[in-house]
Design a protein that fits this description.
386 residues; 16 helices; eight-stranded parallel barrel; TIM Barrel; single chain; alpha/beta; two-stranded antiparallel ribbon; 36% helix
Length: 386
């Protein structure tokens, strides 16, 4: 499989959202009658869209708002929310920084030590609103922060890094044993990020409850440019979903796949589910909400890296409320609002009663799907061709 790229060297063809389309079914369903809920562990959510653990997207108030609407917002335990008692001052300074100053400023602000008492404080604030508290940390801090988070009442713990594998070799620091960690944690553990069948299967075998799929596709992420690594999201999701289904057949335990990043509109989200996702994680779309703490800006989790930033601060603007972005009514023509309405309508058109049926949708390779017949949109910079 694959094509020759040189003597004795083949490369596999992989696909992203812009290169595929979904085929309508011979049976259609009223969009109001499809079931969009998903489940992780014993927790069930009506909105299968997670807000990414980025400081320009999620703070405690955003997490509360998202939870009240039936979704999940993941709070980054290594961001400004746990480094500063009053993170609003820090967020204000990031928002007003020039393009030239932004990365250096973010690097310096993230040098402030993490205060463990703020971890519990932020979780308790979310829990007081009677909504799920979901938090994340990198593998090196997972054991310590996982215990603090669990004791504070967190409902789900996310272990997230640029590339996650079961076998990580290091002589500089202690590596995380996922088997041992999942046994210790009494709450569901989501792990990411990965993009291959083999790694997905290996991670599921450690006892994780969910898997984040995606390396470098995020709007504020520069990993693919800086490191040259990544797999387009359609292929990465399909391969990981195949591992999920194989693992389920072997064990009877279902581990949800969460496509993380690369989705800028409702169409991309629908394609992620058709590729095999059980849920999706989105950053930039939510960073545009009035409730987001980024003041119209968005930056990746790896942006503050002291030596090799793998993200950048981008201006996304503020276009509407969180409710508009999730449920409408949309006042924009680019598919970035009413994401749930888009998913329900797409499911109705492909004849999918639920997410599991959506995963069986016929997919075609269609690189012209974004441009065919859109000459006026392109010329006027509206709709799909902004």
């Amino acid at each position: 499989m694959g094509m020759w790229v040189g003597r004795g060297r083949k490369a596999r063809r992989c696909y992203g959202f812009d290169e595929i389309a979904l085929v309508p079914s011979d049976i259609t369903i009223n969009p109001n009658e499809v079931e969009t809920s998903w489940q992780i562990g014993n927790l069930k959510f009506k909105v299968p869209i997670l807000a990414a653990a980025m400081d320009g997207v999620v703070d405690t108030q955003f997490a509360i708002a998202m939870g009240k609407m039936g979704g999940i917002a993941v709070l980054n335990l290594e961001g400004v929310q746990t480094r500063y008692e009053n993170p609003n001052e820090v967020l204000d300074s990031i928002a007003v920084a020039s393009k030239e100053e932004a990365t250096k400023l973010v690097q310096s602000l993230y040098n402030e030590p993490i205060k463990e008492d703020l971890i519990a404080k932020r979780i308790e604030t979310i829990k007081k609103a009677n909504v799920p508290a979901v938090v994340s940390a990198i593998p090196q801090r997972a054991e310590k922060f996982g215990k603090i988070a669990q004791d504070a009442g967190a409902d789900i713990f996310v272990v997230q890094s640029t590339v996650t594998t079961v076998t990580h070799i290091s002589t500089e620091y202690k590596t995380l044993d996922f088997n041992d960690f999942c046994k210790k944690m009494k709450i569901p553990v989501i792990v990411g990020n990965s993009v291959t069948y083999k790694v997905a299967l290996a991670l599921m075998e450690t006892g994780i409850s969910g898997l984040l799929v995606g390396i470098g596709p995020g709007a504020a992420c520069t990993t693919r440019g800086v490191l040259g690594i990544g797999v387009p999201q359609v292929t990465a999701t399909a391969d990981s979903a195949a591992a999920r289904d194989f693992y389920y057949k072997q064990t009877g335990r279902y581990v949800p796949i969460i496509t993380d990043g690369g989705m800028s509109n409702g169409g991309d989200i629908c394609k992620a589910f058709a590729s095999g996702a059980d849920a999706v994680m989105v950053g930039s779309a939510f960073a545009r909400s009035k409730e987001a703490p980024g003041r119209g800006y968005h930056w990746g989790m790896a942006t503050p890296h002291s030596n090799l930033p793998r993200g950048t601060r981008i201006h996304v603007g503020t276009t509407g409320t969180l409710e508009q972005i999730l449920f409408g009514p949309a006042n924009l023509d680019d598919g970035s609002q009413n994401l749930m309405g888009a998913l329900q309508t797409s499911m109705g058109n492909v004849g999918a009663k639920n997410i599991r049926e959506m995963q069986l949708t016929e997919i075609i390779i269609a690189p012209s799907i974004q441009t065919e017949g859109k000459v006026f949109q392109a010329a006027q910079r509206v709709g799909m061709r902004k």
